């Protein structure tokens, strides 16, 4: 049943639906098609570092649990070419680059709930040509479904003209009882990573993780002063659902599978010491949550060697991600 949960930062009403199985419950907001709360039976704390109310989805929490895009991650100078024409999006970073499509990103939008059942919900968003600076009249769809202790998210998109699409889901995970993930262990099933420049823009071809700070092929703790906000290369194209990462905290364990060729990993090192009010009343700050974001490789339109994110009118964009939870 849909219910009112508050007002978005831009003033719109926000509604929610709750999905439940015997093992898992999830609250989905219309603002950004956001996974606003996720609970595992037998664990007292929420599993996400999430805003306590829609009005708190600002600053560092504006992406928390939301679907981001239509082009997730960073675009150098906000610039890209589509079908021989140059497009430039307004920057939303001090560096002059664009992250998650800036102020026109779909995390700011109110999605429409078109189906809400006990264990699944479908939300849609219609984008007109040019409203986000990109071509195409587009329809996006987010389908959340719970089965047992697993939450699956399917994101689809269509356009009437050639465009680009690279959606991502952006939850911050905290599987413990405090606001510090230093006691979490992370494993990433990737041999290569995209190293970035000082502005967090990929510099070139994938680099081996071996003998670098990026090597999480064997699970180990997220402690220390390591700074990670990089895309791990899982594949060179979309593929059947495959294991991407595992995250283990004191209270719960997460296994993440996805069809996507990339996984953006942000260990929260730069989250500010003070921020919006969060659901679990943790002390919000550096390393209080870990973002694991399945997606295509970032800045792909500006790297011909990267997997393409071009979407043609006869195609359907589709990505699937599966989150399986268990008690630690």
From TrEMBL:
Q: Which InterPro entries match?
A: Aldose_1/G6P_1-epimerase, Gal_mutarotase_sf_dom, Galactose_mutarotase-like, GH-type_carb-bd
In terms of SUPFAM superfamilies, this protein maps to: Galactose mutarotase-like
Q: Which GO terms describe its biological process?
A: galactose catabolic process via UDP-galactose, Leloir pathway; glucose metabolic process
Recorded protein name is Aldose 1-epimerase
Q: Which UniProt keywords apply?
A: Carbohydrate metabolism, Isomerase
Q: Which Gene3D superfamilies match?
A: 2.70.98.10
**GO molecular function annotations of the record:** aldose 1-epimerase activity; carbohydrate binding
What's the superkingdom here?
Bacteria
Which family, according to the similarity comment? Answer: Belongs to the aldose epimerase family.
């Amino acid at each position: 049943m849909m219910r009112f949960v508050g007002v978005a930062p831009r003033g719109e009403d926000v509604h929610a639906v709750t999905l439940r199985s015997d093992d898992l419950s999830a609250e989905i907001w219309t603002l950004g098609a956001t996974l606003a709360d996720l609970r595992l039976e037998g664990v007292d704390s929420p599993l996400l570092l999430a805003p306590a109310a829609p009005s708190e989805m600002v600053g560092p929490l504006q992406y928390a649990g939301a679907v981001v895009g239509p082009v997730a991650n960073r675009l150098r100078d906000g610039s890209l070419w589509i079908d021989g024409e140059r497009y430039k999006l307004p920057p939303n970073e001090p560096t002059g680059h664009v992250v998650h499509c800036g102020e026109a990103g779909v995390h700011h939008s109110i999605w429409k709930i078109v189906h809400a059942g006990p264990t699944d919900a479908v939300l849609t968003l219609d984008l007109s040509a040019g409203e986000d600076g990109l071509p195409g009249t587009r329809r996006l769809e987010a389908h959340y479904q719970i089965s047992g202790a697993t939450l699956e998210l399917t994101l689809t998109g269509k356009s009437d003209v050639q465009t680009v699409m690279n959606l991502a889901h952006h939850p911050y995970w905290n599987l413990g009882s405090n606001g510090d993930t230093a006691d979490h262990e992370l494993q990433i099933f990737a041999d290569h990573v995209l190293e970035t420049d000082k502005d967090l823009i990929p510099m070139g071809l994938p680099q081996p993780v071996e003998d670098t700070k990026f090597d999480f092929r064997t699970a180990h703790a997220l402690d220390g002063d390591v700074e990670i906000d990089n895309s791990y290369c899982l594949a060179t194209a979309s593929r059947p659902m495959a294991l991407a990462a595992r995250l283990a905290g004191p209270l719960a364990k997460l296994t993440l599978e996805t069809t996507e060729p990339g996984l953006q990993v942000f260990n929260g090192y730069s989250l500010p010491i003070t921020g919006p009010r969060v659901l679990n009343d943790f002390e919000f700050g550096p390393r209080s949550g870990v973002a694991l974001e399945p997606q295509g490789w970032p800045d792909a339109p500006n790297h011909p060697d990267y997997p393409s994110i071009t979407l043609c009118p006869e195609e359907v964009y589709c990505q699937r991600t599966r989150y399986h939870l268990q008690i630690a």
